[in-house]
Amino acid sequence: MITVNDQLPTSSLLDLKIGNHITDGNKVSGKISGIEISETDEFLMFLFHLENSHIIVRKLKQVC
Questions:
Q1: If exposure means fewest CB atoms within 10 Å of the residue's CB, which of 2, 16, 33, 64 is most exposed?
Q2: What is the DSSP letter of 63?
Q3: Is residue 19's pLDDT more than 70?
């Protein structure tokens, strides 16, 4: 089971696939049934749909 949060590298979040088992490290865990990725000027938002819930991870974009 993979723990997903804003500390996980973006590349690792992008590698997750439907069927992987994930947890938020607290109460929410399950198998990924869908993934949505949104992008703004400030952050990437990953929405992982699980069988009975969801996990949202926001990653701030690195500004050079």
A1: 64
A2: -
A3: yes
Give the model's pLDDT for residue 30: 96
| ∠ Cα 46 40 57 (to 5°) | 20
Record the tokens describing residue 50, joined without a space: 């699980």
Greatest distance between any 2 Cα atoms in the chain: 39
Within its chain, how far is the Cα of 51 from the centroid?
15
The two structure tokens encoding residue 25: 């490290």
Q: Is the pTM of this model over 0.85?
A: yes
CA 40/CA 17 separation, integer angstroms:
22
